[in-house]
Write a structure and sequence with these properties.
By secondary structure, the chain is mainly beta. Helices cover 7% and strands 41% of the residues. The protein starts with a strand and ends in a 12-residue tail after the last strand. The C terminus is likely disordered.
């Protein structure tokens, strides 16, 4: 979960954070940040994650806007953009580099060793 909304004590309301967030499809947790006990406990594949979903908030205000999602479909081996009842294919680049008013709200990653049958998508 990315903290995209903050409380404004002056107005008593909520403000949307429009700061750009960079993220990629592949995420690896470095051994350097693991505890001493965990460094040898987890294999490389257990420290690799693959993005499979992103929820975005479209709009410039916290109290208004629209939520959409991009989801990776393993059966089609491609990304789908979900906007209410409209579902259509989308490019991976559009998932990781959304339009300026469409900010990522939640990123969903899956651990590499849990993706049986889709190993070809893990680097």
């Amino acid at each position: 979960h990315l903290k995209r909304f903050v409380y404004d004590g002056t107005t008593g309301g909520c403000q949307k954070v429009m700061k750009h967030v960079e993220f990629s499809v592949d995420l690896e947790i470095s051994r350097d940040i693991l505890s001493v006990a965990s460094k040898s406990k987890y294999t490389t594949k257990q420290r690799q994650y693959k993005l499979f979903g992103v929820v975005y908030h479209n709009g410039r205000e916290a109290t208004k806007g629209h939520y959409v999602a991009d989801v990776y479909h393993t059966g089609y081996a491609s990304w789908l953009h979900c906007d209410d009842s409209i579902i259509k294919p989308t490019a991976e680049q559009l998932v990781t580099q959304p339009a300026p008013n469409s900010v990522p709200y939640i990123l969903f990653y899956r651990r590499g060793d849990t993706m049986v049958g889709v190993e070809k998508t893990i680097k």
